[in-house]
Amino acid sequence: SHHDHIGYMRQALELARKSPPKPTNYRVGALLVDAKTNTILASGYTLECEGNTHAEQSCLIKLSEAHKLPEEELGAILPEDTVLYTTVEPCFMRLSGNLPCVQRILRLGKAIKTVYVGVKEPEKFVGENNGRRQLEDAGIMVVLVEGMEKEILEVATTGHIKEG
Ligand SMILES: Nc1nc(=O)c(N)c(NC[C@H](O)[C@H](O)[C@H](O)COP(=O)(O)O)[nH]1
Ligand SMILES: [Zn+2]
After folding, report:
1. Ligand 1 atom closest to Cα of 97?
2. Is the pTM of this model over 0.95?
3. Angle (deg, nearest 10), helices 55-67 and 2-16
4. For the segment 34-48, what is each residue's pLDDT rounded down to a tens digit?
5. Ligand 1, atom 23: nearest CA belongs to which residue?
6. Which pLDDT band, with edges at 50, 70 and 90, does 99 fall under?
7. Dihedrals φ, ψ of 62, to 5°?
8. Burial classification of residue 69, based on how many CB atoms lie within 10 Å of its CB (0-12 exposed, 13-18 middle, 19 or more buried)
9. Taking CA atoms, which of 5, 77, 124, 141 is between 20 and 30 Å from 32?
10. Does the C-beta of 88 come closer than 6 Å to ligand 1?
């Protein structure tokens, strides 16, 4: 139910608050959840893992380390009802040139069934984010969990220079 989604999105937002503010990215929190058993498989926040990492990417890196598998092979071990919660929708392009999280999700095949997002990505860095379309074309549902947009964006943009 929406209530459960809000609960997980709140947890993801708490994770986002751990991210060190930076003017060139967003502070995001993410959870990989087994929706059948309601258990958290991995959590992550922006810059948690070594290097210039995204929240969703950090979840996958941690699972990759736990299972001693390359990230792109995690589809083999993820439960069939795996879903992703992320406070900001997965990136489709990154100014750093690193592999976007939409591609990381797509290369896992059918492993991730649904992506729950707290907000669409603002157009500040890369313009209109069309990643949602790529996910849906691959049969992955993208669901906007409404009600937390303001606080998610406040946390996401803490490191940004405020105009005016
Ligand atoms: N969903 C999502 N999770 C994150 O953890 C994060 N930082 C972003 N941010 C999206 C934004 O478009 C990119 O941060 C910029 O495009 C800069 O790219 P880098 O992050 O330096 O690779 N988006
Ligand atoms: Zn990303």
Report:
1. 22
2. yes
3. 90
4. 999 999 999 999 999
5. 91
6. very high
7. -65, -40
8. middle
9. 124
10. yes
* Residue 135 buriedness (CB in 10 A; 0-12 / 13-18 / 19+): buried
- The mean per-residue pLDDT over the stretch 9-30 comes to 98
Q: How far is the CA of 96 from the centre of ligand 1 (A)?
A: 9
Strands 112-119 vs 141-144: parallel, antiparallel or unpaired = parallel
Q: Average pLDDT for residues 111-129, to the nearest whole number? A: 96
| Spacing, Cα 59 to ligand 1 middle (Å) | 15
Ligand 1 in contact with 91 (CB < 6 A)? yes
